[in-house]
Structure to design on (511 residues):
């Protein structure tokens, strides 16, 4: 069973107004068992029901590749695949994904070889600061799997859930087009 | 943010029983609306009952399309029957939120989503919807995004859903089950309530009543339908105004019409006035302009949303021109 590393910052618990909590001690009586398969590894966790999938990945499993931007579903930085579909992990409860398969940016490369989408982002300069990039890449992988985007306009529209403050959109579009052509 | 207990319901009866047993319990499906508002401190339930994993199927019986409450927005929007028979519904869903959110959001959750009034979402302000009888700062405040139809002196928040505008136009029926076991078929127009004196009561549902499915009548002529949404940016934003329209045309005459608007009403706003103006009229721009004027008659704008009247009219005319040009 994984337990939280005491040196880590627990964003969600820190923000919790203690006075409002119905039970003042954060005792184990309130936690529930949650089983997740993340990047092909099974994890058995003991979590407060209110912990999001995003905080679980970052704070409990140390998978900090998935980023927290807005924490409100508005930026896409926290995008991961759940059972192969792209979702925003900040608006998901970890407990709601009991037994499900999660893929994060850390799970894309296989045998020390980057995923084609990762290579294409590098080749086409699909980023500047890189903060939105894990979310962009996971979203792009989800987009290809969905198979709904054919034209440039459709790719842009179906990537609109990922905001890039650096404005690397043109590189991102080129990267996705290249991978789409190769996998088509 | 307040702690809650959580349980995944085993079936519908279990879900209803568990929520009905605790006045502070709530259903959760995709979580996209709830989690946002829980983090803001607007939603403070003691207990969540998860229904997301219930079977979510789309079926057709005698031409009626049935969407289980837990179908996802993506699943509905990309379903071949929806795309072919009710383009307005597919387009409305795809105009809302983002691909990630649509993969999570459900039909039931979309119907129940709460409004985007910034005072409602900021717990440091009073708000009649959040805290009954505390006041409505939007009426004299920043009300650019707010409604121009169906408002009261208690609340002027616009209904935010795109999908619901299409469902209003299509005359959908909401099937529910109450804690006493009784099932109800609620006409879409009766599902969402006007704010009146009780803006905190938003739908016809009782506590613990579960949406089981949404049914859409056959309506063969809805093949010719369209959703047009106008936003502050090209994508991934709530509507300033939107229009859901369907036309049946014989020769050069309109014989059937459906018109509903988003972004303008405190609930998804169907316009019988526009429909009556269209039925029997010629299918030309003049008729569409007349229908758009009829649709906006009686609108009551506030300081910052006067622009919505003209914008809604133009949006309606444009949407009608688009369906008219389709074969
Ligand atoms: C950043 C962002 C942008 C968005 N943009 C748009 C947009 O442009 N247009 C648009 O239309 N929407 C938009 N949305 C809203 C989105 O469509 C809704 O959040 C979503 O449809 C809610 O569905 P859900 O399943 O996630 O609901 P949940 O969050 O799980 O539930 C919402 C509410 O519905 C209740 N509920 C859920 N299922 C049932 C049921 N079967 N019976 C009874 N009650 C039920 C829950 O108790 C809860 O109160 C946006 C959301 C976000 C976060
Ligand atoms: S418009 Fe409605 S939701 Fe907004 S502050 Fe007024 S009462 Fe609250
Ligand atoms: S952190 Fe999840 S969408 Fe921004
Ligand atoms: S690369 Fe900086 S936000 Fe996208």
């Amino acid at each position: 069973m994984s337990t939280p590393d005491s040196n880590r910052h627990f964003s969600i618990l820190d923000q919790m107004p203690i006075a409002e909590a119905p039970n003042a001690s954060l005792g184990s009586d309130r936690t529930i068992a949650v089983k997740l398969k993340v990047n092909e590894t099974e994890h058995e966790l003991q979590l407060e029901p209110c912990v999001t999938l995003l905080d679980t990945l970052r704070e409990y499993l140390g998978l900090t590749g998935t980023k927290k931007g807005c924490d409100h579903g508005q930026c896409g930085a926290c995008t991961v695949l759940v059972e192969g579909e792209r979702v925003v992990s900040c608006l998901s409860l970890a407990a709601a994904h009991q037994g499900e398969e999660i893929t994060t940016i850390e799970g894309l490369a296989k045998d020390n070889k980057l995923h084609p989408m990762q290579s294409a982002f590098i080749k086409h300069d699909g980023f500047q600061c890189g903060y939105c990039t894990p979310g962009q890449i996971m979203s792009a992988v989800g987009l290809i799997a969905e198979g709904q985007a054919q034209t440039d306009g459709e790719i842009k529209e179906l990537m609109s859930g990922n905001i890039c403050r650096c404005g690397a959109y043109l590189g991102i579009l080129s990267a996705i087009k290249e991978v789409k052509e190769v996998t088509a | 943010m307040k702690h809650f207990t959580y349980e995944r319901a085993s079936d519908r009866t279990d879900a209803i029983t568990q929520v009905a047993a605790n006045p502070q319990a709530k259903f959760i499906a995709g979580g996209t609306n709830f989690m946002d508002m829980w983090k803001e401190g607007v939603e403070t339930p003691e207990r969540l009952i998860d229904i997301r994993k219930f079977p979510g199927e789309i079926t057709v019986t005698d031409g009626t399309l049935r969407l289980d409450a837990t179908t996802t927005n993506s699943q509905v929007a990309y379903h071949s029957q929806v795309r072919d028979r009710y383009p307005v519904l597919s387009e409305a869903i795809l105009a809302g939120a983002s691909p990630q959110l649509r993969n999570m959001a459900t039909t039931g959750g979309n119907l129940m989503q709460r409004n985007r009034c910034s005072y409602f979402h900021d717990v440091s302000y009073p708000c009649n919807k959040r805290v009954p009888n505390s006041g409505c700062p939007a009426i004299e405040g920043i009300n650019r995004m707010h409604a121009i139809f169906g408002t009261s002196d208690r609340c002027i928040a616009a209904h935010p859903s795109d999908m619901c505008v299409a469902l209003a136009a299509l005359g959908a029926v909401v099937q529910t089950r109450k804690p006493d076991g009784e099932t109800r078929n609620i006409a879409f127009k009766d599902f969402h309530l006007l704010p009146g004196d009780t803006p905190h009561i938003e739908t016809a549902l009782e506590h613990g009543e579960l949406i089981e499915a949404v049914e859409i009548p056959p309506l063969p002529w809805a093949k010719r339908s369209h959703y047009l949404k106008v936003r502050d940016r090209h994508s991934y934003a709530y509507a300033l105004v939107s229009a859901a329209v369907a036309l049946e045309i014989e020769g050069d005459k309109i014989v059937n019409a459906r018109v509903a608007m988003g972004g303008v009403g405190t609930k998804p706003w169907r316009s019988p006035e526009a429909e009556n103006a269209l039925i029997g009229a010629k299918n030309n721009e003049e008729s569409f302009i007349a229908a758009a004027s009829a649709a906006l008659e009686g609108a009551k704008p506030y300081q910052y949303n006067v622009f919505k009247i003209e914008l809604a009219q133009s949006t309606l005319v444009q949407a009608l021109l688009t369906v008219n040009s389709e074969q």
Q: What stands out?
A: The helical segments of chain A are 11-14, 53-60, 116-123, 133-146, 152-158, 169-183. Chain A has two domains: 22-107, 116-183. Chain A touches chain B at residues 12, 15-17, 20-23, 30, 32, 48-50, 52, 71-73, 76, 79, 85-88, 90-93, 95-96, 98, 139, 142-143, 146, 148, 156-162 (CB under 8 Å). The two ends of chain A are 41 Å apart (CA to CA).
